[in-house]
Amino acid sequence: MGHHHHHHGHEHGHHDLKGRNLLLSILLNVGITTAQVIGGIISGSLALLSDALHNFSDVLSLIISYAATKLAKRKASADRTFGYKRAEILAAFINASTLVIVAVFLMIEAVKRFWQPEEIGSNLVILMSLIGILGNGLSVLLLKKDSNENMNMKSAYLHLLTDMMASVAVLIGGILMKFFQMYWVDAVLTMAIGLYLIYMGYDLLKESTKVLMLFTPKSIEVQEIVNSICELDAVKNVHHVHIWQLNEEEIHMEAHIDFKEDIRLSEFDTILERIEKHVYQRHGINHVNIQPEFDKRDSKNIIVQD
User: In the chain, fewer beta carbons within 10 Å around the N or the C end?
Assistant: First the structure.
């Protein structure tokens, strides 16, 4: 019964730029990966090969993010009434999971390498890690702006950022090996990067999981909304409330409202408009669906357990 307000904050130009930047990053990373695989094989550097693998995981995560930004723009249809608005949340979830998995592998490698340091052709390692730093650094700059406001972009950005740091670690390792034969540094740095990855990835995983599980967004206090609707004269009580996030831009709310009197639909509409305005201004809820009731026999709990 509710009618819907849609507040679109984003212009189209912005989306296309996001896509273009992602594409550029994909190309850059394909280049780096290829170079590092060749370099790793020639120099015998495990660090370079794991760096290349890491870069390859970037390519995959960037492709996933790119596909999601494209999908998210598709129109809704009868069999997909929400369109693909959740694609970006799903992409963030996948990328955050792979981030954590990559981190665990890096740390296992690091531990192995710490106990068995190996001789490595350090000149090539230094050169390749520089390529990695430059390539990933460029990608990081390209995606930095969008990473703040979008979970999907943030997940891609983190893959690249950690990869850039891994390349820095490889570089430092290469220099220390060349001049001081300190072969263990590589392992210690890799370990540190792994820990940082898990710390960042876990956060994103948590955020995206909350959205996918339809949890109430953390800025929203359900009781407070219920109280404010109950303040309206005609309202007897509010029950059966659900509040969830469709994606990062849209928050939906549905509820049943019990009225004191058998009011007319036109009167209900006036009340509905007040409610919609209130929850949008106070809580950013931009899609409200209210079921009006009078003397209906149903559970009056705010949260109804089925």
Answer: C
Phi, psi for 53 (deg, rounded to 5): -60, -45
- Distance CA(46)–CA(59), nearest Å, equals 20
- The tokens for 165 are 């740091």
CB of 193 within 8 A of CB of 224? no
Cα 107 from Cα 199, distance rounded (Å): 13
Task: For residue range 33-92, list pLDDT tens digits in order.
Answer: 888 788 777 777 666 777 777 788 888 998 999 999 889 989 999 999 999 999 999 999
Cα separation of 2 and 276, whole Å? 9
Distance CA 250, CA 217 (A): 11
Report which DSSP code applies to 45: -
Burial code (b: 16+ CB inside 10 Å, e: under 16) for 257-288 equals: bbbeeeeeeeebeebbeebbebbbeebebbbb
CA distance 113 to 207: 34
Q: What is the 3-state secondary structure (H, E, C) of 274-305?
A: HHHHHHHHHHCCCEEEEEEECCCCCCCCCCCC
